[in-house]
Amino acid sequence: MKFLAAINIMPLKEILDPQGKAVTGSLKNIGLASIHNVRIGKHITLEIEAENTEHAHEQVNTACKKLLANLIMESYSFDIKPL
Amino acid sequence: MKFLAAINIMPLKEILDPQGKAVTGSLKNIGLASIHNVRIGKHITLEIEAENTEHAHEQVNTACKKLLANLIMESYSFDIKPL
Lengths: 83, 83
Description:
2 copies of one chain form a homodimer.
Chain A: E1 2-11, H1 18-29, E2 35-49, H2 53-68, E3 74-82
Antiparallel strand pairs in A: 1-2, 1-3
């Protein structure tokens, strides 16, 4: 069975996000001063071939832990749905 | 009223995603060969001060169009919820 996973990887709240800070400043410059606290992370989509949702879940979790996210600085969450 | 917006910005389907291709290869190398078609984009969260949801929606849309997304190569979608 094929599944589609959508993963969000974000910098931890405790960690400064300089890219987000810069974007907050730029938004102010183009007249959007009511936007604050911009934080920028990664959105990853992938297709996965697995027997069932649990198995797909397990593999995506492994991918996040071993390769996609840096758990010292980032947290991740994901959704899986059948394709 | 304060709102939290979560924005996903992804490379268009027609456009090659070399970073995603590289990650697909790396996942294969660590034993996750059942994962295909990895695509990597940005996930952005921000807080916004607005009178109502429509107004917040409008401002986030402007931010995406004017600054956050490159509409020639990327598409965006977002969710807004009250904080």
